[in-house]
Write a structure and sequence with these properties.
Elements (H helix, E strand, L loop, with lengths): L1 H32 L4 H12 L2 H11 L4 H22 L5 H4 L1 H23 L28
Length: 149
Amino acid sequence: MLTRGARRAHAIVTATFASCAAVQVFLAGLGVFDDPRFFVTHREFGYLFGWLTLVVLVLALAGRMPRRITGLSALLLGLFALQSVLVSLRAGLPAAAALHPLNGFVILGIAAVTARASWPVRAAPMPADAPGDGALAGAGVRATPGAER
């Protein structure tokens, strides 16, 4: 029961995180093209929704998501933590700090891929429900060659 709920929540929280990452790009754009004070909003909003990366990883583990999705969830957490490190390098290594926007786009892309991959798995039968095919059965993936969908 907990596993099934965690799978459903993972898809929703990951999609929410991806949406927040898109808002972050917009806020950074406002800081560049409208008023530099929007960078404060960009920073604070990033700290506000950043904790979702930990929630995504915990839900992936609790939901016993497939390895790829769990790995992508862990990667999101690591890349998001790297964002603050990159900003802190601004004074000493500005070329490294300049990777901050690129890393942000990578985070957005990985979040979108993870959300899309976890969506079909949220409703997939649990391993105990579908012997042999496991969690991948409901995602349209055959676990064994010739297995029925």
